[in-house]
């Protein structure tokens, strides 16, 4: 029989989820200090559940202790590991999405791809938002919550890198072609082709980032 959860356990879980979301979406920036009393006041929670939540976040590698709690920053040297994780997670998640996505969900993806086709007209921040949404929704369509959680972590690590990459016109065009290829495979319910197209797409981005780091 599972142990009964106490009020502190439930509050700590809520604090953990709220802080985790803020960190993963970069609302709380890397390097930020998290003072327990301030977090307690902000979230209207006691210090014990706040401390428990911070310890859970430390276990996930999202915060560390350095004369207090600090939000972790990613090391640019780890970019290859981050992309390899994305290839593994997103590749198979896309294969599953090809089998499980509803027609309505595929229509939403098509709308995102159409919006991204206007890349040259859009601010970089909007392109990034659309791209993140496209990839996040595909992973969600795998209907595997563990993939969604792992993908959220890899996305956090990627955007946390603050890499010196500016995508050129031809690179944006190539990315758009690859998005169309992924969408086409999903609509055809071809899981193998969808996975292959996704892996190629992420590997292309990894090559662009590697070139930028060599030139930096």
From TrEMBL:
<dbReference type="InterPro" id="IPR011711">
    <property type="entry name" value="GntR_C"/>
</dbReference>
<dbReference type="InterPro" id="IPR036390">
    <property type="entry name" value="WH_DNA-bd_sf"/>
</dbReference>
<dbReference type="InterPro" id="IPR000524">
    <property type="entry name" value="Tscrpt_reg_HTH_GntR"/>
</dbReference>
<dbReference type="InterPro" id="IPR008920">
    <property type="entry name" value="TF_FadR/GntR_C"/>
</dbReference>
<dbReference type="Pfam" id="PF07729">
    <property type="entry name" value="FCD"/>
</dbReference>
<feature type="domain" description="HTH gntR-type">
    <location>
        <begin position="9"/>
        <end position="76"/>
    </location>
</feature>
<keyword id="KW-0805">Transcription regulation</keyword>
<dbReference type="GO" id="GO:0003677">
    <property type="term" value="F:DNA binding"/>
</dbReference>
<keyword id="KW-0804">Transcription</keyword>
<protein>
    <submittedName>
        <fullName>DNA-binding GntR family transcriptional regulator</fullName>
    </submittedName>
</protein>
<keyword id="KW-0238">DNA-binding</keyword>
<dbReference type="GO" id="GO:0003700">
    <property type="term" value="F:DNA-binding transcription factor activity"/>
</dbReference>
<dbReference type="Pfam" id="PF00392">
    <property type="entry name" value="GntR"/>
</dbReference>
<dbReference type="InterPro" id="IPR036388">
    <property type="entry name" value="WH-like_DNA-bd_sf"/>
</dbReference>
């Amino acid at each position: 029989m599972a142990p009964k959860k106490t009020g502190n356990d439930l509050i700590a879980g809520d604090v953990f989820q709220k802080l985790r979301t803020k960190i993963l979406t970069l609302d709380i920036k890397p390097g930020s200090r998290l003072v327990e009393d301030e977090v307690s006041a902000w979230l209207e929670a006691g210090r014990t559940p706040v401390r428990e939540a911070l310890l859970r976040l430390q276990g996930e590698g999202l915060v560390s202790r350095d004369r207090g709690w600090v939000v972790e920053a990613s090391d640019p040297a780890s970019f290859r590991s981050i992309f390899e994780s994305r290839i593994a997670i997103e590749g198979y998640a896309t294969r599953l999405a090809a089998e499980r996505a509803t027609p309505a969900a595929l229509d939403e993806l098509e709308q995102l791809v159409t919006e991204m086709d206007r890349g040259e007209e859009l601010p970089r921040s909007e392109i990034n938002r659309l791209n993140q949404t496209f990839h996040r929704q595909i992973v969600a369509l795998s209907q595997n919550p563990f993939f969604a959680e792992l993908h959220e972590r890899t996305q956090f690590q990627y955007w946390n890198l603050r890499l010196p990459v500016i995508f050129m016109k031809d690179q944006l065009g190539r990315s758009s072609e690859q998005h169309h290829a992924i969408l086409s495979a999903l609509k055809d319910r071809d899981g193998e082709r969808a996975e292959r197209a996704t892996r190629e797409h992420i590997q292309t981005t990894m090559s662009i980032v590697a070139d930028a780091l060599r030139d930096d």
